[in-house]
């Protein structure tokens, strides 16, 4: 019986291998999706391109703002809400200070449901209020957090700040 199973498997696999095909189990949605750190870096890059086109300087990445942005996105996922006020009542300035950002916080953009960096940046740029925050030439730093919920839906947060002095 084992010989029949092996021969059947070889009959299927040999032609596939000859054509350079690989038979594999389908990947689940989470493993097939890009890592959120990659998406976050893409948002920074696309935001900086938009800023340069608008006559602003590129933003520097702040690890403290990244921590604040990721924490807010995770909080929205964990507590199943969408908003600028945290589940504990915090505002973005409080969250950025708690994450160790000691400079001046300038603004926050949030979004959910966009599947990729290009879509979420386009959405923010098409919204006058979000666009104003992104293209505020006084901001010098950025942090982005993208967190998936159990269904793979992305919750996005962009934090902006400026170095004093």
UniProtKB/TrEMBL annotation:
Does Signal appear among the keywords?
yes
Q: Which domain of life is it from?
A: Bacteria
Which terms are listed as keywords in the entry? Signal
Signal peptide extent: 1-29
Query: InterPro entries, from UniProt?
Result: CAP_dom, CAP_sf
Q: CDD domains from the xrefs? A: CAP_bacterial
Q: Where is the SCP domain?
A: 45-160
- Which Pfam family is an annotated match for this chain, by its short name? CAP
Q: Which PANTHER family match?
A: SCP DOMAIN-CONTAINING PROTEIN
Protein name per the record: Uncharacterized protein YkwD
